[in-house]
């Protein structure tokens, strides 16, 4: 397991978010990104999690609600990485994958795209 501090990991997540194209960032609505050390019990391989209503599923009925939530699991990512470079790649892939869910892209398509 690679040793990356919580602060450094947070910077990697922020860097991945900055890498999202400007047009897509502007289209993101009511979503917050969090970092937690551990994934939910029973899901140790889970690297990230999107919880919310994808933009493609929001209709006229959609009004202000709690923000959608993207959570990135630090220790789950660190456990599968051998180098700091691996961590950078996995964080970026995970952030893009979860943002993709915010835009309504399913797991199958995200895996086809390499995320």
UniProtKB/TrEMBL annotation:
InterPro entries xrefs: Zincin_1, Zincin_1_sf
CDD domains the record matches: MMP_ACEL2062 (cd12952)
Name used for this protein in its record: Metallopeptidase family protein
Organism name: Actinocrinis puniceicyclus
